[in-house]
Amino acid sequence: MTAPTPQHRTGYDLLRNPRLNKGTAFTEAQRRAWGLEGLLPPAVASIELQAARRHAEIADLDDDLQKYLVLSDLQARNETLFYAVLMSDPATYMPLVYTPTVGEACQKFGHIFRQARGMYLPISARGRLREILRNWPEKDARFIVVTDGERILGLGDLGAGGMGIPIGKLALYTACAGVPPQYCLPIVLDVGTNNQLLLDDPLYLGVRQQRVRGAGYLAFIDEFVNAVQQLYPKCCIQWEDFANLNAVPILERYRDKICTFNDDIQGTAGVALAGIFAAVRVTGQSLTEQRFLFLGAGSAATGIAELISLAMAREGMDLATARRRNALFDINGLLVTSRTDLAEFQKPFAQELAPVSTFVEAVNAVRPTGIIGVSTVPKLFTRRVIEAMAAINERPIVFPYSNPTSRSECTAEEAYRWSDGKAIFASGSPFPPVEIAGQRFAPGQGNNVYIFPAMGMAVFATEAKHVTEEMFIVAAQAVAEQVTEEDLSTGLIYPPQSRILQASLHVAERVATSIFDQGLARVERPDDVGALIRARAYRPVYPE
Q1: CATH number at residue 228
Q2: Residues 298 and 374 both lie in one domain
Q3: In the sheet where 119-122 sits, what is the strand order?
Q4: Which residues contact 361 (CB under 8 A, 6 or more apart)?
Q5: Banded model confidence at residue 4, pLDDT cuts 50, 70, 90
Q6: Residue that finishes a domain, picked among 390, 416, 449
Q7: CATH number at residue 26
């Protein structure tokens, strides 16, 4: 009989190891061999029966945060069963392990904390990050999702409570694209918090000081990156939920030096572009005929605008012209060339127009084919805005992408009703189906989950040296081409989440092919790239 582990774990030690524990699925022979007799109920259950038990338990709960906690406890106890549950019904469980439920979990992190997961690197440990990272039990980390907790979804500075984001993201790496969980490492860089409510909360678990800024912060980031490169040379770092003032410079600092990407900037851009590729199939127009107006002018908005511009340039348009077809609107109005308060990363998208102070006026001035909300401020896609879009366009594109649901710029029902069913809609968080005048619409969710897990799988399989913008354009095309005409007829512009694993493996194959084409792989190119992806994909099956 095969031992459960090279360390020959037995008894309670085996039951308490989430990667090795099979719970009631241990056979009678295994129980005898590994000292488990008497430690489990006598009945032997299949993983299917175990999953059914968890499905029933979760379905009986009324509160999504309680469901999140049940799943978190399962992940800490039996990792294989956790992924079996998630992968059996991803459309149901993704909103529980990630947005929108993870937002509440991060807000209440110190109050619901049960068991440590991932790594916390405090600013007080400067000079010792490599030493501390060595405490992680896995010696071949391939993916790190890291946050400093300053801009968690649309909820702001949650400090160490931001750990829920890396944990949730990496769970989706595995559940949605098959990245083996043993290669995934969630990290919080705790540089303090400016959230006074947290600093005053006796249950807060992070460093109790104001956030470190400037040279000290950058030195801490440099030390972290260098430590990761020394310990895990094949590791890809995904930056997550950093404030704009840090997100853009960090990405620019490292994107050409290591394998890295920022999901809020590039992943969001990829999923938005995928939605646009599908939307233009509905409108019958080309990508280069589009003009977009963004509500929000931070790193997410400029990231989407830049990727759209690069995709337009790929289709023959001059890049500077393409950038001018993407307009941005922030708290001070439309970004125009006469403004003196623009950051360098915003200037390529400034318009040669007179100043405009309201969003509905900006819609009438720019006359966009689509509006994209990344403001994190709810309800700013008002009735006047949607009606103006419907007056300008036969099929207006309306993408309120801010998360969680409470931060969405409008609801699906508002977009459909105010546009008389004309809107091509996708949101960042899920909305239920809408029926208007006898027609049923299935709102699409422009969730980064269509992009980053597949990107991760492609990087894992090819051991890519870098992540490029071209890879995100390829990923967006691969997502969009899986949307059927039947999907489009119901308003759905992304593949159904029930098919997320199949969709992600398809995207991963396309991205991996691009990695080989760009000469960025560290493994030899196989004859069948799809077979390579499928062979590396994790399946939630107990070992014999």
Answers
A1: 3.40.50.10380
A2: yes
A3: 119-122, 184-190, 143-147, 236-239, 260-262
A4: none
A5: low
A6: 449
A7: 1.20.1370.30
Closest listed residue to residue 184, CA positions, set 207, 168, 206: 168
Tokens of 399: 């993408």
pLDDT of 434 higher than 50:
yes
CA–chain centroid gap for 107, Å, is: 18
Domain boundary among 433, 449, 465: 449
DSSP result, 170-223: HHHHHHHH---GGGEEEEEEE-----HHHHT-TT--S--SPPP-HHHHHHHHHH
Is the pLDDT at 429 greater than 60? The verdict is: yes
Q: Strands of 326-330's sheet, edge to edge?
A: 333-334, 326-330, 292-295, 370-373, 397-400, 424-427, 444-445
Same domain (yes/no): 326, 404: yes
Q: Is residue 12 part of a domain?
A: yes
Rounded average pLDDT over 68-93 = 97
pLDDT at 347 over 60: yes
pLDDT digits (tens, 9 = 90+) for 467-516: 999 999 999 999 999 999 999 988 899 999 899 999 999 999 999 999 99
Tell whether 88 is covered by a domain: no
Which residue is listed with tokens 């969405």? 408
Convert the pLDDT of each residue in 134-171 to its tens digit. Answer: 999 999 999 999 999 999 988 999 999 999 999 999 99
Structural domains in the chain (count): 3
User: Is the domain of 108 the same as that of 206?
Assistant: yes
* pLDDT reported for residue 86: 97
pTM of the model: 0.93
What number of H helices and E strands is found in the chain?
A: 24, 14
- Which residue has 């984001």 as its token pair? 165
Same domain, 277 and 337: yes
Establish whether 169 is a catalytic residue: yes
Q: What is the pLDDT of residues 16-29, one digit of tens each?
A: 999 999 999 999 99
The catalytic position among 98, 173, 401, 542 is 98
Q: Up-side HSE of residue 459: CA atoms within 13 Å toward CB? A: 29
Q: What's the domain range around 8?
A: 1-45
Would you call 425 helix, strand, or coil by DSSP? Answer: strand
- Is 22 one of the catalytic residues? no
Q: Point out the catalytic residue in the list 67, 68, 83, 169.
A: 169
Confidence of residue 6 (pLDDT cuts 50, 70, 90): very low
Asked whether 239 and 250 are in contact (CB, 8 A), the reply is: yes
> If DSSP codes are grouped into helix, strand and coil, which group holds residue 355?
coil
